[in-house]
Amino acid sequence: MRVSTKELYISRMVKVLNYIQANLDKDLTLSELAEQACFSTYHFHRIFSGMLGESVKELVRRLRLERAAIQLQTGALSILQIALQAGYESDMAFSRVFKARTGLLPSKFRKSTHTKYPCLAKASIRYVTNEYITSFEPFIDKELNMNVMIKQVDDIYVAFVSHTGPYQECGKAWDVLCSTLAPEGLLGGNAKMIGVSFDDPDVIAAEKLRYDACISVTRSFKPIEEVGTKTICAGKYAVITHIGPYGKLSQTYRQFFGQWLSQSDYEPANKPCFEIYLNDPESTDPEDLVTDIYIPLKG
After folding, report:
1. Who is most buried in 2, 67, 168, 277, counting CB within 10 A?
2. At the top level of CATH, which class does the domain 5-111 belong to?
3. Domain residue extents for the chain
4. How many angstroms separate the Cα of 185 from the Cα of each of 16, 173, 221, 230, 289?
5. In what residue span(s) does the HTH araC/xylS-type domain sit (predicted)?
């Protein structure tokens, strides 16, 4: 019997969840976890956070708190020892977070007779002692209604300017690119305005985010100073249209990877996504901006 894509994605995430729990005190890297899941590091975290309803950091922080709650009521460790094991620098910092999640200070929780542990995640994964997680019910947004098209895309030759830093500051790269191409008459006609985001802003520090501002050109165009050329590779892509501010693009990415993709018959390819901007942000209200997101697929 053929295993469904959903079951395959769940089994991969189960492996990651058990790996996290077995190594809860380690500083786990995304590449390490992506390898466990057999997913590309490009896309692993968006699949994870979409299916689990929380990021890797949020999950680890919560599981450590849940373990701490068990230790408070069943162990002999001091509150400071438990706080340090949970990743906090002091018992005061730990106590502040613990009370926010449980409603009680650790000292009062330790004396209580009930087992009011920190809140469950959306996918109902919680800390268990010496037990193996076998499955979970992925977080699904019941109001999610994604209209996804599968397209075969040809090579796109582009002029580009690279940007490193917060995505909201990539306008500097666009200014350089457009001011260089405008005198050449290359901004009109069928030219496509394309953005290639190499990193997930949910897990990479803002100052390290990498982005290429691109405009499609003919092969006759040659690099000029800061403006280089490259090819966005042909292949099969899932395309979804995002309507609204660019600042909410990451939400659409998470929904696509964690929910639509895990219910489909597709797997992401090991290369970056790209975006095609269909109207001008200088003359369009943020709520009316239209962006086509292209997600590379295997096969």
Report:
1. 67
2. mainly alpha
3. 5-111, 148-296
4. 51, 18, 12, 19, 24
5. 14-112
